Structures are given as structure tokens and as C-alpha cells.
Predict the 3D structure of the following.
Amino acid sequence: MLRFDTPGAGGFADLFTEKPINYDRLPMPTPIPNVPGTRVVDTHGTTVIAVKYKDGLINVADRRATAGYTVMYDQAEKVLALDDYTLISISGSFAKSVEVVRYLRHAFKYFERSQLQPMSQDGKLMELQRVIANNVPAALQGIGAFIPVLSTFDRDTNQGRIYFYDVLGGQFETAEYGAAGSGSAPIKGAFEYILKTKGPFREMDRETALRETLTLLDIAADLDTATGGSAKFLPAAKYITADGIRDFSEAEIKAALGR
Amino acid sequence: MPSYSPYDWNESIQQRNEYIEDRLKDGSPVVALTYDGGLLLLSARQTQRKIYEIYDKLMFSAIGNQSDVEQIRVAAIDVAHAEGFQRSPDDVSVQRLVSFRLSPAIKKIYSDPFAQPVVLKGIFAEMGKTPDRDRLMLLSYDGEFSTTPDHAVVAGTAYAEDRMREHLKSETESGTPTLAAGLRAALYAWGVGMKHLESEDRADADYSTDGEGPKDVSAFIKEHLSKGWIVEAGVLERDTTRESRFRLLSDSELLETTGRYTQG
């Protein structure tokens, strides 16, 4: 696949569609034809939360992966880095989510490396919307819905941004917080309660914001069977600042959980 | 149809080499070396960027026609990303990329008397999990490639490369250098190589070590930097929490190295 003759335009998916290679392992987007009827798309078993805090953004997620009523796995990683300043927190089909994340990581990096400039913020958001939109048939069949929350630190304006999505790829920017997964609905009121009584997340310091989000996650675990608690394995927690993405240490997470 | 004899073949290869070598000889040399925290590529340039990221643990720099360098760069990025996505990033290796994909393609172009040859001599630097697994691969316009540990150089003439290697070897004998020591050695080696290339009488400069004293080389580097040459250095960092391991060093990070020549 040495394309000595054609200039590249930075499109990662073009690498696969221009030449007939390995069609058994298609890259994203993966449309599935022949959708019979329509169904309700379930939100999937998990809780992921993103909030803005004083210096950037915090993402936390439980670590349970479920299939129906069965707990499949207790150490799932649902907060994943797409690039140095962008985190995606995934809810929905785990297999699909992982594939999407792999695709997006490669797409963003491929663009930056080949074009010698990073893909714009809007370009990245558009790529994600397209992937979700292309996944609608699979979501309607009930075999691969995927709904993420995206957090990104905008270095031009020096502030964090959070986007959440509907199943059709519709994108919404949120001012304070974003959450997705089956556990996100029961705790919606708790977010509002915190905003009203303790003030906005974006004015909190890192420790306070982490404590509040982990408390919310704990409540979600109490109210939603598909959201894992923190007793067996600690939740995933990462933050983004102007310096990039960092993991919260085990000690920080334990302190925030009051242990 | 004119007849085509072995003599013509020999002749055409020779002309090709002359044409290519002539175009390569003014390229600003590139130095690659392992330092204690990763891998370093360094060169100096006037306007055009020279050091590029190829994949997660792979970077590239070259001398040659810019359009050719660009084509090889993009081809390498395409191959690496397709493989990394379809299989795994761990399966993207410099050895597979250079010896099985790039080299045969370049060799084919080189051997075709009716094709425009690829004017390029490049270094691909791959960072391993540990310093002893770092791999530096040189790729040439005729498809030839070779692997070296610790350090590698490309320059416009074989002799300039020899002299650069000599200096790097003596600098790295005492063990893997720190980034600061690596940068210092690399820039100095660049000066040694570039000075040989720019000697007024190339024939005299070859096979001599005249003008290689620290004072001469320092003055030479100083002169270039004052004329607006820019030192460019890219690193792959072994232990980093950043998503990207590759980055170009900033002016302030290079100040300790360039300051020796620009200040005082």
C-alpha cells in the first residue's frame, strides 16, 4: 500500500477503502444493512461522568461490564484517551466502543502525523458524530449501541469542554457536567442538587470535584444494577489540564472515597 | 527498439548514482542517538522541517529532495497506521516497515532506468522497551538498508558520515548519555559533518581531519546559528504519561545546547 503516486488528504479510513485489502476486518464506520423494523435503543449498563473543575476536566467511570443480568467483567476501562487532551468515556456495547476508540485514535493521529498539524477540535467532533451516526443500524438492531461522553481541553481558550450524544450522533455541549449509561438517569437530580447547594463544579478544586463525582458514581451504583460499586475494584478516574491527561492515583481516589 | 547491453546498464546506474549523490551532498546532516530517557534525532535547518513522527514509537528524518522525503514519509505513515489498526501497534516495527515495504519499492524505482530515482538517505528510529532494544535503520536511495545500535548518521558524503560517527562514538563510549549530553554531542557531530561538506575544496577535505578541532567546529556552528540556522531536535520518550511519545523539543529546551554557541 505504498501510495507513491497519490497525495494523502489525511483521511485514515481512505487507507482501507481505496484498496481492496482485508474487507473481513473493516475499519469504522461499519454500517449494517437491512434493519428490520425499529426498536427502543436501551441505554447500556454503566455510569460514566465528566465534569469541569477549576483547572480542567475530570472523568470517572465504574468498571463493570454486563451482559443482560450477568456481570461479565469487573475491571473494564471505560475512560480512554483519544489524544493528549481528549478523553472519551464510553457507555454501550463494550466491543463496539473499544473498536470506535481504536479507530478514532488512529484517525486523529494519522491526520496529525501525515498532515503535520493536529486535526481541529471541530474536525475531531465531526469524526466522532459520523462514527455514531454510522452505527445507528447496529444500535437499532440492539447489538451495538454506543453513546460516549467526550471531554476535551481547548488550549486556545484554556478551558475544558464536554459533549454528550444521542444515539443518532446528535451532539450537545454541556456547561457543567455530562453523564451517560443506565446509571446516569437516576443521579440526574443529584447533579442539580450539587449545583444548587455547593455551586458549580467548574469553581471546585480538584479534590472537591473528585469527591463529588465519586459520590455521584457511588449513588449510581446503589440505584442501578449495571453500575459497579467501588468495593472490589476502584473506579477509573482521570483528569485533563493544560498539561495533558493524568490518572488519579489510587491514594487520591481512596481519599476521595473517604477510605 | 535500440539494443540494450550490460555496458548500458552499468553506465546508467553510474549516471544515476552521480546524479543522486550530487543532489544529496548539500543536505544538512542528521544525527540519531539513544539517550537515557529515550531516542533523539537532531539536525539543523534553514526553513523546511526535517524531523517527523511516523508512529507511536517511530520517527524519521532524511536528507534528499524534499518531495521524495515527503513521499517516503507519507508512505511509511500509511503502512504503519494500517498495520497498527488492523493488527496491533506492537506489530508495527521498523524492521518490517523498512525491509519489507519501503526498501523493495525504492529498489524497484531505482532499478528502472526510465523512472525518476528517489533522492533520499533517511534514518528511521524506533524506540524499544529498553535502550538495548532501540533500533536505528538507515535507508538509501537504492533500497539498501542497514541497522545500527546506539547511534546513526546520514550526511551527503560517506567521509562526512565517518567523521560524525567517530565523534559520536567517542562521546557515547562512557555509557548512555543524558538528554543534555546527547544534544551536545549530536549538535557537535552535526557541525563536524556539515563542515566537511562545506569545505571549499572537497577533495582536500576528504580523508583529512583538518579543521576538526573543537575551536574550528564551534566557530562553524556559531556562524551557522548566527546566520539563522535552526537546530531541530525530536525525541521519543520511553517513560512518559503523555499519549504521544514523540515531540519536538522547544526553543527553551534547546537553549542549553544552542546557548553555548549563541551566547558570549
Summary: DSSP finds seven helices and twelve strands in chain A. Residues 123 and 176 of chain A are 23 Å apart (CA to CA).
